[in-house]
Request: fold
Amino acid sequence: MNKLASETSGKILRTLLYVIILAELVALSTTISYVINYDLYLSLAQMEQAINIFIVVSLFIIYLVYFIWMYKVHIDMQYYNISYPIKPSKSVWSFLIPIYNLYGAWNVHSNLANTFRQRNYSNSNKKIGDRIMTLLPLAYILTFVDRVLGNYVRSMLASQEFISDFIWVSVEVIFLALLLTYLGLYESITNGVRLISSTDLVNNEDQTTETEGA
Reply:
């Protein structure tokens, strides 16, 4: 099977996602220690600060890699599906333009899902498309909740008001769930592109064989 254009950037994105998920699990553990044993938390406070900085930097890198990967995914989609409606450049701008990106991100993912559902009527492709359309609204909801909680915590810290243990833990749990949702979307899209490319190669080989036989 030919190497996909999105393969290299996809592997980098997957590695970064796993690393940041691991870092977030550690951050969640330190938050739980804050709730259960404050003295233990004090010994971990500096490590927590370092992890939080690492997560912020990693998120910035992940966003950059994600845009590159999505661009390459759409190069693959147009190579194996000449009628695919979204061009590689549009797939990136759909995420970058403020306000429009609320629709654009949905449009990009839903078009991928619909293509996976329809292509050669494969049951596997349909399941991948269904999974994307299950994870996509979840990603929207978790992103909204994550931002609301983040703004709430920042405003409370600025006014030096008390923040409950439940809020602290919720912030970490929601962010971890969001990262796992991103990972699920990545895996679904990657598997969908691989199935489409392998199916096309098989079809091309069959057509070549028929031509030679004729």
In short: The chain has six helices and no strands. Residues 7-207 form one domain. The helical segments are 7-36, 38-80, 88-96, 100-118, 123-158, 165-213. The CA atoms of residues 28 and 173 lie 7 Å apart.
